[in-house]
Amino acid sequence: MKKIKAAFTKKVLTAIIVIGVLAILMMYLFVFMKYSEKTEELKSSNQQLSTRVAELKGYYDKQAKYQKDIDLINEIVTKLMEDYPADTRQEDVVMLAVELQNKYDMVISNVNMEENELVYDVPKETVKGAKIEGFDKNLQFMKKKASYANMTNYENLKAAIETIYDSPNRVGIELISYVKDTESNVLDGTIDLIFYYAKGTDKEYVCPDIEEYLMGAENIFQ
């Protein structure tokens, strides 16, 4: 009887120990491991926050420098936009040709021009976000291509190119193509130009000075 009781007591004790070990294991798996994962998550989150705080502190410490850079960029943008007229029309293309022909030994036989084209569009939100005084609309950078077929010589061509670049309009030379007559020393060819302008600024279009055309007699026999 004592042996049976001892064996039963041993089994019960073993069962209790096993149950205890299982309970500890369950606590480890579902409690300790869970808190351990939470701890790692918090550590990672704290590390990210510390990095972000350090980054923001760097921005704060350099705030004066950033503001100075922004003011400089705004000044550059404002200065750059001053070179862009509000529009380019047929009159501008024609009157530049007239100016070149009047100033230099250049005979322009033909003036060709294309329709105005959009080059780049800056959305209104982007423009307003820059907070540059005088700019609160969307900006559209436009271009108009033109070509002058002409006859001239080398010296006058060089002078004409200088005048084109000195134009109050923003004009670029896309292509210069000439054939030289060796006997007369005359250059025969074309100058392809691109007139640039910007829509969306406070500027108003200024028409070039065009002299009034004097009409001749309607009836040549009178």
Task: Characterize the structure shown.
The protein is an alpha+beta fold. It has 5 helices and 5 strands; from the N terminus they run αααββαβαββ. The chain is elongated and about 130 Å long.
- The rounded Rg comes to 41 Å
Give the strand tally: 5
Note the main sheet.
5 strands, antiparallel
Structural class: alpha+beta
The percent range for strand residues is 15-25%
* Large-scale geometry: elongated
Order of helices and strands: HHHEEHEHEE
Oligomeric state of the chains present here: single chain
Distance between the termini: 157 Å
What's the mean pLDDT score?
80
The helix content is 40-55%
Number of H/I helices: 5
Low-pLDDT runs of 5+ residues are none
At a glance:
The protein is α+β, with helices and mostly antiparallel strands. The protein has 5 helices and 5 strands.
Task: Throw out a few tags for this protein.
alpha+beta, 50% helix, 222 residues, single chain, elongated, 5-stranded antiparallel sheet
